[in-house]
Amino acid sequence: MKELSPDIVLPVSSVPGHVGVAFGASPDEFLWLTASARPALEPIFAPGTPVHLHSFRPGPEITTRRYRGRQRPHFIQRTRGGVLFVNARQRDRAPNAWLMNDRGSTVRRLSLGDGLSDVRVSAGGKIWAAYFDEGVFGNGDGAEGVVARDGAGRKIWAFDASAAGTDDIADVYAFNLSAEDDAWVYFYMPFAIVRWRRNKPTVWQTRVQGARAMAVRSREVLLLGDYDDPISLRVLDLPAGGGPARVKRRLRLRLPAGTDIASIHAFGAAHRIALWSSRDLMILDRW
Predict the structure, then answer these.
(1) Is residue 95 within 8 Å of 149, Cβ to Cβ?
(2) Integer angstrom CA distances of residue 181 from 123, 140, 177, 265
């Protein structure tokens, strides 16, 4: 089977022992936080803990600066006026997202609900949130599986299984916001791909179970992983108007030597898949 290597490989940090804490993928930028391994597991960073915010823009442009917040996030997105940080879990309906300006001050707090599997912010400022099962079945804000909000956190759209003609979402396995109002979701348990473009759904059925990230082009999708093999790759052909997706190519991801597969976090952003391991940021661009 042909192997596909990442087009870009960057160290997650220049500080020995620092690992990825939170991640954010978008079509134009990749953001991540790093801290030493032990504080990375804590919900609150102790005073004086060195935490860094990194940015990579294809071009390339790489920046690093201190993160001065105390609360540990899981997701990061650039937004109007600063950077949005989001914790995947919400306790007692307290705000679990906070917007920090470029000076490092928190200017707004938002509640996005519990059980978040992914968060994206569009160029127009909409906040898109996808949920895993505890968020969907937790009688909270993620019951529909995917929700879009305005910049103030007000719900303005939600996945409509009846309109799509699919089962309800139980758990979002992969999400991709490829452009403004162009959202793709792959979910349990039908493992269908649904594209919502300008509020109209297109549905493709797949036979791939357990993929963890999805890159998209107009008529093709790249799925990373399945239940049996976390680094398998499949390129799927998407017939116009929906229907069964056909596997065009099977590939295998070739990782840098010594990569800890169990540490990888993967997210699709437009036609790219970004993977953060305990050591590297890897980007699949050409497939």
Answers:
(1) no
(2) 10, 24, 8, 25
Q: For residue 66, how far is the Cα from the chain centroid?
A: 22
CA 144/CA 89 separation, integer angstroms: 17
Domains in the chain: ranges and CATH? 3-284 (2.120.10.30)
Q: What residue has token string 């160290």?
A: 11
* pTM, to two decimals: 0.96
pLDDT tens digits, one per residue of 17-58: 999 999 999 999 999 999 998 756 678 998 889 999 999 999
Residue 199 to residue 156: CA distance in whole angstroms: 11
SS3 state of residue 197:
strand
Selection from 206, 236, 201 nearest residue 220 by Cα: 236
Tokens of 181: 């109002």
In eight-state DSSP terms, residue 41 is G
Peptide bond into 100 cis (omega under 30): no
Tally of CB atoms within 10 A around 62? 12
Q: What pLDDT, on the 0 to 100 scale, is given for residue 27?
A: 97
pLDDT digits (tens, 9 = 90+) for 134-179: 999 987 899 999 999 999 999 999 999 999 999 999 999 999 999 9
Burial 233-267 (b: 16+ CB within 10 A, else e): bbbbebeeebeebeeeeebebebeeebeeeebbbb
Query: Smallest Cα–Cα separation from 111: which of 133, 89, 95?
Result: 95
**Which runs of consecutive H residues, i.e. helices, occur in the chain?**
133-136, 161-164
Which strand ranges, in their side-by-side order, compose the sheet holding 75-79?
Answer: 61-66, 52-57, 30-36, 18-25, 75-79, 82-86, 97-100, 106-110
Tally Cβ neighbours within 10 Å of residue 286: 7
Q: How far apart are CA 175 and CA 267, in angstroms?
A: 7
